[in-house]
TrEMBL record:
<keyword id="KW-0805">Transcription regulation</keyword>
<keyword id="KW-0238">DNA-binding</keyword>
<dbReference type="InterPro" id="IPR054015">
    <property type="entry name" value="ExsA-like_N"/>
</dbReference>
<dbReference type="Pfam" id="PF12833">
    <property type="entry name" value="HTH_18"/>
</dbReference>
<dbReference type="GO" id="GO:0043565">
    <property type="term" value="F:sequence-specific DNA binding"/>
</dbReference>
<dbReference type="GO" id="GO:0003700">
    <property type="term" value="F:DNA-binding transcription factor activity"/>
</dbReference>
<dbReference type="InterPro" id="IPR009057">
    <property type="entry name" value="Homeodomain-like_sf"/>
</dbReference>
<dbReference type="InterPro" id="IPR018060">
    <property type="entry name" value="HTH_AraC"/>
</dbReference>
<protein>
    <submittedName>
        <fullName>AraC-like DNA-binding protein</fullName>
    </submittedName>
</protein>
<dbReference type="Pfam" id="PF22200">
    <property type="entry name" value="ExsA_N"/>
</dbReference>
<keyword id="KW-0804">Transcription</keyword>
<feature type="domain" description="HTH araC/xylS-type">
    <location>
        <begin position="182"/>
        <end position="279"/>
    </location>
</feature>
Length: 279
């Protein structure tokens, strides 16, 4: 049985935010114990059918009256149709960076979830049902402010869950953070979209510039200047593709002091000028 890499198989040839997105999943035949490599944490909002999931010796089964928050990793899952011969759920994916940012904003440093259970079962209620009905991949892929809307929806459901389940849910969220993510990597990756210079990020890591560069190269296998430039130019390309912004609107936020230098770097990386993307 082949391994399905999710969410990669859902985002082929689609322009989606790599940190957070929604996918409407429908099926008209049962699938029993399919092998899944789940690359992002994911809400599974089941609306029609039944679902059973196995993960490293643990398993859970839910129906349309429940939803799941699943930890990224290798899973075996079974999806069964209902009496109307259909299976339908909405999948809400979010990156570890998105989760880390949320936890930093709204929670304190808490002890990890003691049982280290890879899933959290959510009992659906009227509020959650209304939230689920507001999610649609078509809405968030065709809206000018889709990324901002999705971020608000993510915070909405997370805050509601914290209010509904309290510390139990808070502890679980903290357990989703990979143990190998160091404070150094958290600081680096939380500043990808900032306009801070390398020496400024080194300062935030409590390192000298030379120590930071050496540590960075060991961690990411390339110099920090090139790594940050590539990440920020990719972000610039995504912003320009949205059609709402021009190069003159974003070059400072991407970390360039003038428009000319930004345009040269952009063309060197992508082979086209920023104006070719946004026009």
């Amino acid at each position: 049985m082949p391994i399905e890499n999710i969410p990669e198989i859902f985002i082929k040839n689609q322009k989606v935010n790599q940190d957070i997105f929604v996918y409407d999943f429908k099926m008209i035949s049962d699938v029993v114990k399919s092998k899944v490599n789940l690359g992002m944490n994911m809400f599974s909002f089941l609306q029609v059918g039944k679902k059973q999931v196995h993960f490293a010796g643990k398993s859970v089964a839910v129906n349309k009256d429940q939803s799941l928050l699943l930890k990224k990793g290798n899973w075996l899952w079974t999806e069964l149709l209902d009496t109307e011969a259909i299976y339908y759920c909405k999948l809400f994916f979010f990156s570890e960076k998105k989760l880390t940012d949320f936890l930093s904003k709204y929670t304190s440093n808490v002890k990890p979830y003691k049982e280290d259970v890879p899933y959290f079962v959510i009992e659906n209620d009227d509020y959650i049902a209304s939230f689920i009905s507001s999610l649609s991949s078509s809405t968030f892929s065709n809206h000018s402010y889709s990324n901002a809307l999705l971020s608000l929806k993510f915070e909405e459901i997370m805050l509601y869950m914290l209010n509904k389940y309290g510390h139990e849910f808070e502890y679980y969220l903290h357990s989703l953070i990979s143990k190998e993510i160091s404070p150094f990597k958290n600081t680096v990756e939380s500043n990808v979209d900032s306009n801070l210079k390398v020496e400024e990020i080194a300062f935030l890591c409590n390192m000298s510039l030379s120590t930071f560069k050496r540590h960075f190269t060991n961690e990411y296998k390339e110099p920090p200047g090139k790594w940050f430039q590539d990440k920020r130019l990719q972000k610039a390309k995504e912003l320009l593709q949205g059609g709402e912004l021009k190069a003159s609107d974003i070059y400072l936020d991407i970390g360039y002091n003038n428009l000319s230098n930004f345009s040269v770097a952009f063309k060197n990386k992508f082979g086209v000028s920023p104006s070719d993307i946004s026009s």
